[in-house]
Amino acid sequence: MRQAALLEALKSIVGEAFVITNAADMETYMNEERGLFHGTALAVVRPASTIEVAEVVKACVSAWVAIVPQGGNTGLVGGAVADGQVILSMGRMNRIRAVNPEGFTMTVEAGCILEDIRNAAEAEDRLFPLSLGAQGSCQIGGNIATNVGGINTLRYGTARDNVLGLEVVLPDGRVWNGLRALTKDNTGYSLRNLFVGSEGTLGIVTAAVLKLYPKPVAMETAFCGLPDLDAVLPLLERARRASGDQVSAFEVICRTGVEMSTTYLEGVSDPLESPHPWYALVEFSSANSDDPLRETFERFLEGAFEEGIIVDAVIAESLEQRRMLWRIREELPEAQKYEGGSIKHDVSVPVRSIPEFIRRASEAVVAVVPGARPVPFGHAGDGNIHFNVSQPVGMDTNAYLAQWHVMSKVVYDIVDELGGSFSAEHGVGRLKVEYLARYRSDVELDLMRRIKAAFDPKGTMNPGVFFG
Ligand SMILES: Cc1cc2nc3c(=O)[nH]c(=O)nc-3n(C[C@H](O)[C@H](O)[C@H](O)COP(=O)(O)OP(=O)(O)OC[C@H]3O[C@@H](n4cnc5c(N)ncnc54)[C@H](O)[C@@H]3O)c2cc1C
């Protein structure tokens, strides 16, 4: 089928208004947040149902035109950026099909915004625990495709741990209905788990059954000043033990990061009187209204003071104060922009190796670019560090960013030596293809290629992701 005929076919499937071909109207679908990619597309197609998705896929495959699935376009590794293909934008598939509070599940379409899902769960006195800075615009289909983590991973796991069933349109246009609301289902290979984290390379997620939890009724948040980096692990251990494993967040931030947030973010000030080399943002939560959470939390902090693993702390006394403490952490990447270019690494290492990783990587990046300023922070409770490195003061930003790959290899080599992952949360996309080839074994890569070929023999589903 020629391109013009394909466009006509797509219009007849989803309606003329939902096939965008005008360059100006397509522009918002072409860029991602960090500005590392700018795409081009034959068209942006916006289906409204699973049947429409299936028909669009069939039409594209028979015309040998590849498809790039796109959710909220908040990904950070170029996974949803097209290079002349058809973008399948899922935003119109945004119905919550069912909420089942008794069964602690809900069934949603892939284009639902994460925040809307969280609100719908809350309206039924339930929690859907995935939570991240982009939750106001990312979609559950994108969250599943990238196996998103976020701030509550320590307690509730990643997307993979919170998806029970999936509906997927396969690369040949068939629909796999795996919308089973089952925790136990040992009936062969877990197809669901293959699709989670597949970044749109094996098919298009159109709906999902999600896991819900009792809604927390109590929450305690503290911003703690630490004497040094070595206090992080004993503090995490104490928090998990003292709370009976009710730690819902454990984020660490270096002093430079706190300085940037408090300098550049309006309305954000340093919550502690004097500066400390490291900080931890610790949160306990409980769904039990009889639980004396505040007492438990204060006992935990007192014990940590006595042990010398925190030297100062402030407990949020209101939602407003809690929000301010979280802004220091969540908006830090925004604040960092005011200090020029930042070379970013979203890595994970075994939790016990966090201090060693940060020390070694901090020395190593300064050896690559003298004067570079490491700004490590992140979800330390699950070993995930955002190892961002700001440019030296006064250096030309482009000259600094030109060192991205050299610096990243040095950082990822250390991560690899420590048994970690070069991409903890954001995935591989198009940005990290060479690192997948470098850090995963031949056996692993061979198996991944065979899986891709089995699902997508024509290679029309998000080409360029994972394998270049
Ligand atoms: C401010 C900010 C904070 C963030 N914080 C975190 C964080 O804490 N933790 C974390 O893990 N990530 C974080 N991210 C990145 C995160 O991966 C994305 O925000 C989110 O998961 C992607 O969802 P999306 O709907 O925007 O997907 P997109 O960006 O549109 O797509 C991402 C990938 O998924 C594929 N895809 C999208 N929809 C579908 C579908 N329906 N079926 C099949 N494939 C699909 C795309 O092809 C692409 O490969 C953050 C991003 C931003 C901008």
Q: Overview of this structure, please?
A:
This protein has 468 residues and is an alpha+beta fold. The chain folds into four domains: 3-89, Uridine Diphospho-n-acetylenolpyruvylglucosamine Reductase, domain 2, CATH 3.30.43; 96-214, 2-Layer Sandwich (Uridine Diphospho-n-acetylenolpyruvylglucosamine Reductase, domain 3); 218-333, Alpha-Beta Plaits (2-Layer Sandwich); 340-426, Alpha-Beta Plaits (2-Layer Sandwich), CATH 3.30.70. 35% of the residues lie in helices and 21% in strands. The strands form four sheets. Strands 12, 13, 14, 15, 16, 17, 18 and 19 form an eight-stranded antiparallel beta sheet that branches. Strands 5-6-10-8-9 form a five-stranded antiparallel beta sheet. The chain has a four-stranded mixed beta sheet with strand order 1-2-4-3. Helix 1 (3-14) packs antiparallel against helix 3. The longest helix is centred in the middle third of the chain and has 15 residues, at 293-307. Flavin-adenine dinucleotide (FAD) binds next to strand 3, helix 5 and strand 10.
List keywords for this structure.
468 residues, alpha+beta, Uridine Diphospho-n-acetylenolpyruvylglucosamine Reductase, domain 2, Uridine Diphospho-n-acetylenolpyruvylglucosamine Reductase, domain 3, Alpha-Beta Plaits, five-stranded antiparallel beta sheet, 17 helices, globular, binds flavin-adenine dinucleotide
Based on Cα principal axes, name the global outline. globular
Bound molecules: flavin-adenine dinucleotide
Specify Rg, calculated over alpha carbons.
23 Å
Report the top-level CATH class of the largest domain: Alpha Beta
CATH architecture of the largest domain: 2-Layer Sandwich
Strand content: 15-25%
What is the helix fraction of residues, given as a range?
A: 25-40%
The number of E-state strands comes to 19
